[in-house]
């Protein structure tokens, strides 16, 4: 049986964080052994909100290094840069003819980003889901490991793929958001407002490059309160968030200890936080050190990008000849 195809990407807009790890990277690493995988640094997507390219090269190198440090193997998966696969732009153009401005204007991420960047509401921001759909279906991928924030984009990618199939020919499988065994993940920010992010909420986001001291400082500052006063009461969102983080990093035993302490009102959030940062540091520090050394090896990064682009372009070119044929763009 042919292997299913997997595609996903991360924007080079800053340092990778725990949300990127648990929403995306953790799945990439597991999927590379089971499927045919394409993982990219989404540099074109970053231009929609980060038009200044002074730090782009450094950020591309950083994302590649952090991907590899988390366990992604460039010999198993194609790890490449979005802008190296020129076929993406061609498919993006064709898909734009199948996307309606109304549906694009209603996208939650478009509305959020437009609010955050009121002086730069560019057309690229509006058509972001079209470019993302092109990235995915260019490899005829059906599985897309992403976090919860990308759910709506995936629904749109499915719509665009289906529209193409109905209008022209059945070329594209339906792409679906993927997470092993459960719902999509959202790693909340430590201030209880929204999700951890590369370009927002930076003091409330824990990055894979944070020093041990900075991790301690951020966790100490995480929003909490003096604890419940009634046994077995419901947890406020920001406390639920601390438990979610504990669940990601600490043992089942530790989690249960604090669940019981919460339920009998004996919980001390200072103790919970200390166990949390200790377990976070144990997880993050080896990744941070590995990523730093990979980042210094520019020759290796170049080799990775070249190899990845060659694999991704071969797959893209095969799809694009089917696309042109289906669309009737073949005149001799
Ligand atoms: P930016 O702020 O620049 O948009 P980001 O942190 O949202 O950066 P992206 O590059 O947009 O990161 O997304 C990369 C992947 O990480 C996507 O699959 C996205 O769903 C996932 N992701 C991002 N933030 C979180 C989070 N807090 N929890 C779970 N998954 C996340
Ligand atoms: Mg994002």
Rg is 21 Å
The portion of residues assigned to helices is: 40-55%
Q: pLDDT under 50 segments (min length 5)?
A: none
- Under the CATH scheme, which class of the largest domain? Alpha Beta
Strands side by side in the biggest sheet:
1-2-3
The CATH topology of the largest domain is Rossmann fold
How many helical elements?
A: 14
Q: How far is the first residue's CA from the last residue's CA? A: 35 Å
Relevant CATH superfamily of the largest domain:
HUPs
Name the overall outline.
globular
CATH structural architecture of the largest domain? 3-Layer(aba) Sandwich
Proportion of strand residues: 5-15%
Helix/strand/pairing category: mainly alpha
Average of the residue pLDDT scores:
96
Series of secondary-structure elements, N-terminal to C-terminal: EHEHHEHHHHHEHEHHHHH
Main beta sheet strand tally, sense and closure: 3 strands, parallel
Protein name: Tryptophan--tRNA ligase
Pfam family, one: tRNA-synt_1b
Binding site for ATP: 11-13, 19-20, 147-149, 187, 195-199
Function: Catalyzes the attachment of tryptophan to tRNA(Trp).
Which short descriptors sum up this protein?
single chain; 332 residues; mainly alpha; Rossmann fold; Tyrosyl-Transfer RNA Synthetase; binds adenosine-5'-triphosphate; binds magnesium ion; cytoplasm; EC 6.1.1.2
